[in-house]
Design a protein that fits this description.
12 strands; 2 domains; alpha+beta; NADH Oxidase; about 425 residues; binds iron/sulfur cluster; globular; four-stranded antiparallel sheet
């Protein structure tokens, strides 16, 4: 049944030079611009329970995945890490670099947006760097107040092969490209007389999605990912913070918050049953909370999984087409079809709409916590096995523990 349109969102075209697009938002999925939020609760949780990067807080399973990766995936990941390392290192010190030009004091918002689009970023928006979302280990590192949120599109065709090595090439290849483009954008900001600090997509300094939502670049989907107008969750996101004068963009209601409740495709198709139907209030925002422990084992064993990205109609068809179809018919474009919902799950074969792979309970047993938690767990298992550790093993345990604690427990680059 056709729907009444509440408002029409106008956004820039997919790539630089494309005409603007219009996205009609039906009245019955209109909620609020951005996300439903209780500001005082966001502030409370950020103070009382500050967030830490998964590179640290979930380091145990990030290390464990290397023990179960296929030879091909491990080799590819090592090559990616080698390419990525200098990009992450350059980002880490980028905020210390001096400007190379002379500031004029003019508002640089549109100049920087244009430059970002010319460089190839599909989305570019401006907002306050909300320190409430900065990870504990990065609090002192973050220097500037204004955030430039940018997104690079991951290849469309490769993404549709998810889960697969080909899609992993697209995923990590996009991050490599993005790391290099961020250096160019930061150089440009310095040439205009201002400072720029790169927040790498491979060494996240904060939860970036809230800033992207605040800058109007999309809304949070039920799959836990930013749904951007053209790419859905194929948007690979990163930020630059700066002291350059800019004007903040505003959050937008694309209708996604409520549309996801109608759609539910990712929730129903998730092989790990890691996505949940109902929204909850979590750290001051209303969202669908992903169950990490049900997702991670699937991701690790099935080429990064990401079925939740593949089956999302916004990713597949783009927001304008999906919202136009919803307004015209009241239905979710592609829902219930093999085209949208079907996927091949490595050796397990093809799963069409309504079909899901089954896993045993053991499948979901993974190490939890930080690196030292995993190390202690292994040592405990050794003791419990009845075979006392040798002196050499005990010394090796102590050395490894010291090494982990000394370097701050970080295993950068596993996202
Ligand atoms: S990556 Fe796979 S297991 Fe994890 S939430 Fe997405 S679909 Fe589910
Ligand atoms: S698949 Fe549907 S429910 Fe899931 S994020 Fe995409 S639009 Fe939302």
């Amino acid at each position: 049944m056709a729907k009444t349109v509440s408002h029409v969102v106008t956004r820039p075209g997919r790539v630089h030079g494309d005409a603007d697009v219009q996205i009609p938002v039906a009245e019955d999925i209109t909620t609020v611009p951005g996300i439903r939020m209780r500001e005082e609760d966001v502030s409370f949780y950020s103070r009382a329970y500050p967030q830490e990067t998964q590179n640290i807080d979930k380091a145990a399973d990030r290390r464990w995945v290397w023990t179960i990766y296929s030879e091909e995936l491990a080799g590819f990941r090592k090559r990616h890490d080698a390419i990525n390392e200098p990009l992450v290192d350059a980002a880490a010190v980028s905020g210390d670099l001096e400007p190379t030009g002379t500031p004029t004091g003019e508002d640089l918002t549109e100049k920087l947006r244009l430059k970002a689009r010319e460089l190839g970023f599909g989305e570019a928006g401006f907002t306050k760097m909300d320190r409430r979302h900065v990870y504990t280990s990065k609090k002192r590192w973050v220097k500037f107040e204004h955030a430039i949120c940018v997104a690079l599109e991951q290849d469309y065709l490769q993404t549709q092969t998810l889960p697969s090595m080909e899609a992993e090439f697209a995923h990590f290849g996009t991050y490599e490209m993005e790391g290099a483009l961020l250096l160019d954008l930061a150089d440009y900001i310095r040439s205009l007389g201002y400072r720029a600090q790169i927040h790498s997509p491979n060494d996240n300094s904060a939860a970036y999605i809230p800033m992207f939502v605040a800058a109007g670049l999309g809304q949070l989907g039920a799959n836990g990912q930013l749904l951007s107008p053209h790419f859905g969750s194929r948007a690979r996101i990163a930020m630059i913070t700066t002291d350059a004068p800019v004007t903040y963009d505003q959050p937008i209601d694309y209708g996604i918050h409520q549309f996801c409740q109608e759609c539910q495709v990712c929730v129903n198709r998730c092989p790990g049953r890691a996505l949940v139907r109902d929204k909850v209030w979590w750290r001051g925002v209303e969202k669908n909370k992903l169950i990490y422990e049900r997702c991670r084992p699937v991701m690790a064993r099935y080429d990064g999984c990401a079925v939740c990205m593949k089956v999302c109609p916004i990713q597949r068809f783009g927001m304008p087409a999906v919202m136009e179809h919803y307004v015209a018919t009241g239905e979710v474009l592609g829902k219930g079809t093999d085209l949208l919902e079907g996927y091949t799950f490595l050796e397990r074969g093809y799963f069409g709409p309504g079909e899901l792979p089954q896993f045993s309970r053991d499948f979901f047993e993974i190490p939890h916590g930080r690196n030292e938690d995993w190390l202690f767990q292994q040592f405990k298992e050794k003791l419990m096995s009845g075979v006392a550790p040798t002196q050499e093993e005990a010394v090796s345990f102590a050395k490894e523990l010291h090494g982990i604690l000394a370097k701050g427990n970080s295993t950068i680059g596993d996202e």
